[in-house]
Structures are given as structure tokens and as C-alpha cells.
Amino acid sequence: MQVRLARKYGFCFGVEDAIETAQRALNANEPGKIVALGPVIHNRQVVENLERAGLDQSGDLDQLEEGTTVLIRSHGVGPDVYARAEQRKINIVDATCVLVKRAQSVVRQLHEEGYRVVMIGDKNHPEVQGVIGYAPDVIVIDKGDDLDAKLPLRAKLGIVAQTTHAPEHVANMIGLIAGRPFRELKVVNTLCLEVVRRQEAAVELAREVDVMFILGGLHSANTQELARLCREEGVATYHLETWEAFEPAMVHGAKVAGIAAGASTPDFIVNEFADKLRAIQPAP
Length: 284
Fold this sequence. Notes:
39% of the residues lie in helices and 17% in strands. The protein contains 10 helices and 11 strands. The strands form 3 sheets. It has a 4-stranded parallel sheet, sandwiched between helices. Strands 6-5-7-8 form a 4-stranded parallel sheet, sandwiched between helices.
């Protein structure tokens, strides 16, 4: 089978930094003396590799002993976590993505400037949960139906977005917000350019192939977004973690397959999948 890879895929610099930070912390601490507050990134294979190296990624800050080192995951946390860690004399190693850090700073600044902060994002995503902690009463919206229930009228609004969201979705939401009565509107672009580039590459490839495979963690927001965007192009699209989830029926009748991957997907997963897919003989 003919296989084409997206021109941009795999680890972004934020994920690379988080993994390297976790590995350095493991090397610098005794076994059992460093704990992460949740998976460092949204990729099961990477998470399992770090656990085999000795990193507990199911940490509960309130249960940690004094002197323990806590690793802040790439998605970041709210300021209350830093305060509680300092109070309990727990050391911090921070693997928060720099772009998430920027979003946190923007939210704080907007609040200080008198804006009611609105975040376009998934309220259950760890990045969003951390970012909204930097201002009181942040409004989280992610679809048009949220506006009537959540958005105040004639307010001074400051808008940011989850870093992994698609620009088109964010622009649509901003348009809906701007169509309502407001006193002032300030929009700060907090989208990750690396994620946007992967989205553009995936959509570009989806228009050229018979079937698309999006590889990466099933809970990864940026990988889910890749799959959604490709499906919108009308091509059969499958979001899989690894080759183990592949089924021959997925390529039935297809001659050209495309592969894209999320920003937290290791290259070895992409390479293995591509090699095995190429070995499949298309039906005559």
C-alpha cells in the first residue's frame, strides 16, 4: 500500500522539554522521591516508559511527604498548587509548556486590567483547569450553546483559548461572542503554532489520500482535534494509539493511506505503523 506522511507530525518542543525535564528529575532524585501530578503528557507509551524509569504519575499533593519532589506536568497547574507545595515544603520541578505558561500569564494580566476573562476550551482538560486558576470566575465556553447560559451581557471581556484548539473553531466562537452585546472585547492569541502547523499538514494530506490514520493518545486533545479536522474533509479517518489497534477492514478499497500524529506521539510509533501499512498488498 502507498503511504504518505504529513509534512509535520510528532513531538512539539513543549512535549520534548517535558520529557527531558522528567528524565533529568529522575536522574537527580532517589527512587520514590519524585512524583508527578498526573501523566506528564497525553501519550500512554511515553507515560509507561517514565513509570518504568521510576516516576509515579498518580501523585496527590496532599498525600506527599515533606522533602518529596513533585513534577508539574506539561499541561500546567493553577497557582494554588504552587502555594500548597511551598507550604508543605515540597520541592517543585516544573515541566509546564512555555505556551501554557504564557496563557496563564495572559489570564492573570487580563483580570488585572479589569476584563472578565473568557476561555474557549474544554472545561475538563487539565490545561484549561490550570489556566483558569490565574483569575477569579473565568468563564469557560466551547460551543455556541454555552453563550446564553454563561456569557454576561454588556461586559468588558478578555478572551483566550486552549492552546491545542483549531484556529477555525476559535475564530467561530469569537465571532459568536462578538455578535452579542458587549462593552469591550480584547482577544489574545494563545494558540500553539506547532499544533496549528500539524493541523494544517494533516488537513492538507487528508485531501490527497483514501484513508487517514491519526496516531496518538486517545485522551490527547490535540490528537483528537487532528482526527476531527480530517473527518471534516470527508475522508475515512481512524484515531489509533498504535499498530495494535489496526484492523484490515480500515483500508479495504483504499490505495493511498495518510498518516499524521499528535504533538505528543513518539516517532517510533509513526515509523512502525507506516512500515507495517506499506507491507499490506491492496486488493485488486
